[in-house]
Amino acid sequence: MLHLPRRPRRNRRTAAIREMTQETSLSLSSLIFPLFVLEGTGVKSEVKSMPGIYRFSLDTLLEEIREVADLGIQAICLFPNYSEDKKDKRATESYREDTLYLNALKEIKDKFPDLTLMTDIAMDPYSSDGHDGYVENGEIVNDVSVEILGKMALAQAKAGADILGPSDMMDGRVGYIRNFLDGEGHTNVSIMSYTAKYASAFYGPFRDALDSAPRFGDKKTYQMSPANAREALVEAQLDFDEGADFLMVKPALPYLDIIKMLHDNFDIPIAAYNVSGEYAMIKAAAQNGWIEGERAMLESLMSIRRAGAKAILTYFAKEFALAQNG
Ligand code: PBG
Question: What is the pLDDT of residues 183-235, one digit of tens each?
Fold first, then answer.
């Protein structure tokens, strides 16, 4: 017999002891379910690269929201899919009155007043260039973009959004949006800033869902380089100073170190976006019988929580809720 005063296995001996000593917990209240809306009625079309995830017209979307709310999901984030004819250089469809997206937000808030409704602020779903900002001579022009994002933010706040999610990575947009909203009396609308959003290959399936891939070039002049960590502290300090209520890291799993770093350095809630490609990988492997999908999902979400994210945007939210209910 070895003489070992400390045997860590004792704390793993029974299920009850394991639960008692569990350091991190994962609950539905942390999850935000992203949903896609498109024109039409009676539409429910599956995103090919995201099995189990659909694009809904407003009528079927409301049914889906009823279902997920009944499962206990308390927060959703809505993204729009627009046809090419609605897109232009200045993304004017994003703040015009009476549009698909803004009407959907109003309707959702009206029918589900207690549901936390998050939005996306960026030009790409509405931009004929497929970029998050305004393009001139092949360049993404920061300050012109920020003004457009401000109009978008105000329109979404008026439509009933609880949390705005600027995903564009332009400089100064959080402060500009905060000021603009406050000036219009929307002091209660929160901002969850995409603080450290990396130029990532893992957004591919999402761009399929929205038909929003950039028409030229890539997003490297505004999204961060996967090689950089300390730069995320600069972004985080700016967003914190500019009034963000949450700091988000995106994608999640390849950037757990960044989540942890922001968590250790800032005293506001940290969020993470478990993006489309992260979802697609687990789904594809599970469909091939190569991994156990549900266990891989739970392990991934737990690791994101453990790294320090309080809120997690994830396409797995409904599946997690179903697993918990069943
Ligand atoms: C665009 C936006 C993207 C995502 C959310 N907002 C893609 C991109 O930057 O090209 C990605 C989400 C996902 O992959 O799940 N503003």
Answer: 999 999 999 999 999 999 999 999 988 888 899 999 999 999 999 999 999 99
pLDDT, tens digit, 9 for 90 and up, residues 260-294: 999 999 999 999 999 999 999 999 999 999 999 99
Ligand 1, atom nearest to 214 Cα: 10
Give the Å distance between the CA of 195 and the centre of ligand 1. 13
61 neighbors 104 (Cβ within 8 angstroms): yes
Which long-range contacts does 146-149 make (Cβ < 8 Å, 24+ apart)? 146/170, 146/171, 146/172, 146/173, 146/176, 147/176, 148/90, 148/91, 148/94, 148/95, 148/123, 149/121, 149/122, 149/123, 149/173, 149/176, 149/177
Ligand 1 pocket, residue 122 CB under 6 Å: yes
Q: Which of 197, 219, 283, 318 is catalytic?
A: 197
**Pocket flag, ligand 1, residue 194 (CB < 6 Å):** no
Asked if residues 300 and 274 have their Cβ atoms less than 8 Å apart, the reply is: yes
pTM: 0.97
Amino acid at 215: R
Q: What is the C-alpha separation between 44 and 34, in angstroms, rounded?
A: 15
